[in-house]
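Bug #77: duplicate submission created two jobs. Keeping one. Sequence:
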Amino acid sequence: MDAQPFPPVLPTYSRAPIAVDRGEGSWLIDTDGRRYLDLTSGIAVNALGHAHPALVEALVAQAGRLWHSSNLFTIPAQEELARKMVDATFADTAFFTNSGTEALELAVKMVRRYWHAAGAPERQTILTFEGAFHGRSIAAISAAGSTRMADGFAPLLPGFRTLPFGDHAALEAALDDTVAAVLVEPIQGEGGIRALPAACLQGLRAACDRTGTLLVFDEVQCGMGRTGKLFAHEWAGVTPDIMMIAKGIGGGFPLGGVLATARAAQAMTAGSHGSTYGGNPLACTVGSRVMDFLTDPAFLAEVTRKGAALRAQLDALVAARPGVLTGVRGKGLLLGIACAVPNTDVVKAARDAGLLLVPAADNVVRVLPPLTITDDEIAEAARRLGTAVAALQPA
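Kept job's structure:
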């Protein structure tokens, strides 16, 4: 028997049996014309839903002017987006990438360069936490400390130490004069929608201030309005020194970045970092339009309101099917449902009912609707999920 040919697309994904054709707001339509209520948002990427008219208009207008010039030249759209980011956040400066993984790479370089310039190159260790996800580059999987993600990719990069999630004693013991930075997601996404309480983030900020350690937030998934604030750390009233962003910033167009204070970024001089595509005119034009929505207090208030409405519906489903679902966690429209049965069974049953969800670690199903989801769509999502879990046998 002839060997099967190797697939033309590298087979690194375990894909759902849906061939997507187009999207409309909160809906994804496959090539057979079936409509799915999309509570994945491209994994928290399509912040304004599919094919939002304002983003389409901005992209088409820019596409007719200039797609790419490289960072050899000043890019006005990049300057505009950077100014909007700086004005709306703790940051003094921004660097734009194409993805969250690239943002992680720059954050690590920025930390190391900071201590090199400060005359303490021995401060190299970056503390991270179990359950974290920071991307899939070698540096990112080294930072996460996940055996599953690292399997077969040794040797990993030195300079990272993974601590138990939420273990304050372990953190205090680890913060010695070899530590350069602490890297943390205010709410772990891939890790199962696990939030650090505000008191923990406040204590972490105080500990870093006391030891001179840089504090780095990864808000790739939990940022860009998803929790009802522009960034999740705002709920705790603390700020980082460096922050990774991506996903929702481009509303579906590939865009990421790093925001930083002047102090943290001062050693990043000309030639210390760069990107051919990062911050290109197309991406930054769309990102700038996204920011116009996500810096509107009324828009964010609606995210909070709709998040509470959706959570109430999910809580009711948990109460109705305790042998299938066990609890709801998260904030705003970054929600997770803990499952008593395999979370993949819940995702499949929901898909059969025309509802798209995302699995995560800790046997959790992520619920990540567009921030523009309507009240009627929230009710319809609850109805479809109810149909799905009713078809599952309790654990």
